[in-house]
Amino acid sequence: MDSATWIQSDSLVILGNGSGSDSAFFILGAIPVTKEPNVERAMSQILEKYPNGRSLINVVIQREDRPYFPLGLVTVINVTADVVGVASDKNESSSIPAIDSNKSTKGKKE
Predict the structure, then answer these.
(1) pTM for this prediction
(2) Could you give the CA distance from residue 35 to residue 48 in angstroms, rounded to a whole number?
(3) Which 8-state DSSP code applies to residue 71?
(4) Whether the bond into 70 is cis, omega within 30 of 0
(5) What would the mean pLDDT of 70-89 be, rounded to a whole number?
(6) Long-range pairs of 55-59 with CB within 8 A, sequence gap ≥ 24
(7) How many angstroms separate the CA atoms of 77 and 79, rounded?
(8) How would residue 109 be classed by pLDDT, with cut points 50, 70 and 90?
(9) pLDDT in tens, 18-52
């Protein structure tokens, strides 16, 4: 999954780190009982925790299969990321580092 959002602003800061997850259950490891785990749903859980959050950076996506013998398999998608956005005066401190928009970063795939 490759995606990029160009956000041009001098007032963006890292608001914090968050995590989200989504899961699905498969009978006998093959027959789905629930919908497939969704990465976007896990990412939206992270952004829900930060009302001023605009985007995610340093995203790490992990898939974990948990067998429940003999019934089935639970597949879990875990996502952790840093949330960037505009800091509010009430909730965020002024010691949060600002993001330099002149630096380019390369994403890591796992």
Answers:
(1) 0.70
(2) 21
(3) T
(4) yes
(5) 89
(6) 55/5, 55/7, 55/83, 55/84, 55/85, 56/81, 56/82, 56/83, 56/84, 57/14, 57/81, 57/82, 57/84, 57/105, 58/82, 59/107
(7) 7
(8) very low
(9) 999 999 999 987 888 999 999 999 999 999 999 88
| 3-state secondary structure at position 18 | strand
Structure tokens at 77: 């998608």
What percentage of the chain reaches a pLDDT higher than 90? Answer: 50
What's at 14, amino acid-wise? I
In the structure encoding, which two tokens stand for residue 21, read together?
């997850």
Pairwise CA distance, residues 79 & 83, whole Å: 12
Longest dimension (CA), the chain: 55
Per-position DSSP letters for 46-65, written without gaps between them: HHHT-TTEEEEEEEEEEEEE
Is the model's pLDDT at 78 over the cut of 90?
Answer: yes
At residue 86, what is the residue type? Answer: V
